[in-house]
């Protein structure tokens, strides 16, 4: 795994004096952290401590399990490339936020609950088809429906407000607790989810869901 970052408020001459952070056991020993004044990688997201892209900023080009050493709060974000899942707490825990390329001048624009962003990951590129099966009950029981397109209102299609299990067969998806892609979000990769807790939810409520499209 390769991580590259930059504290944009520092000048190039200051970088030699910075000690590289010590990463936890969740990272392999071959992790390389490189501070530079410019990032040339394909993917980039910029976190700002203040609203409207003001204050200290940090640029990231890959997965990071703990951002807390780079900034204390996050009130605006600019996604220059890639699809990203952001997490409220370190180690990919807490509220999740799916961000595509664009500008987010305050945390309400990514439907954030607060200004806490402590970890992030890129979603893998996917060029094939999309397919997900949702179920009325746990362990793939009860009524089942299969989808290959976005669903802005689950109840209108499924006749249930709750999804207790699902099978993501192709592509990557995001569940939203409210219709029209609102409310708490949950990122799902191809896998079997036998109960709603498997995708990190505390209840089975799903109001809408959509594909993670490769808008790089």
Automatic annotation (TrEMBL):
Location of the Beta/gamma crystallin 'Greek key' domain = 43-81, 82-124, 130-170, 171-213
Q: Please name the InterPro entries in this protein's record.
A: Beta/Gamma-Crystallin (IPR050252), Beta/gamma_crystallin (IPR001064), G_crystallin-like (IPR011024)
Does the record carry Repeat as a key word? yes
Please name the GO terms of the biological process aspect recorded for this protein, alphabetically: lens development in camera-type eye; visual perception
Keyword Nucleus among UniProt keywords: no
Enumerate the GO terms in the molecular function aspect. structural constituent of eye lens
Q: Which domain of life is it from?
A: Eukaryota
Q: Provide this UniProt record's keywords sorted from A to Z.
A: Eye lens protein, Repeat
Summarize the protein's role: Crystallins are the dominant structural components of the vertebrate eye lens.
**What is stated as this protein's family in its record?**
Belongs to the beta/gamma-crystallin family.
Subunit: Monomer.
Q: What's the protein name? A: Beta/gamma crystallin 'Greek key' domain-containing protein
Q: Which source organism does the UniProt entry give?
A: Pleurodeles waltl (Iberian ribbed newt)
């Amino acid at each position: 795994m390769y991580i590259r970052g930059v504290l944009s408020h520092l000048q190039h001459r200051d970088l030699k004096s910075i000690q590289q952070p010590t990463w936890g056991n969740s990272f392999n020993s071959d992790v390389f952290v490189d501070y530079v004044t410019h990032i040339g990688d394909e993917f980039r997201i910029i976190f700002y401590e203040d609203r409207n892209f003001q204050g200290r900023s940090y640029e990231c080009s890959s997965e990071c399990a703990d951002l807390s050493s780079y900034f204390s709060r996050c009130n605006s974000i600019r996604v220059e490339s890639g699809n990203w899942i952001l997490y409220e707490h370190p180690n990919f825990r807490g509220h999740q936020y799916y961000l595509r390329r664009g500008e987010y001048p305050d945390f309400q624009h990514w439907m954030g609950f607060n200004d806490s962003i402590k970890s992030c990951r890129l979603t893998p590129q996917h060029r094939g088809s999309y397919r997900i099966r949702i179920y009325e009950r746990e362990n793939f029981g009860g009524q089942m429906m299969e989808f290959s397109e976005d669903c802005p209102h689950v109840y209108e299609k499924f006749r249930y407000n709750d999804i207790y299990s699902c099978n993501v067969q192709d592509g990557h998806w995001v569940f939203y607790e409210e219709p029209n892609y609102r409310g708490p979000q949950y990122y799902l990769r191809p896998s079997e989810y036998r109960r709603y807790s498997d995708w990190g939810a505390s209840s089975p409520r799903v109001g809408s869901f959509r594909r993670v499209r490769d808008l790089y």
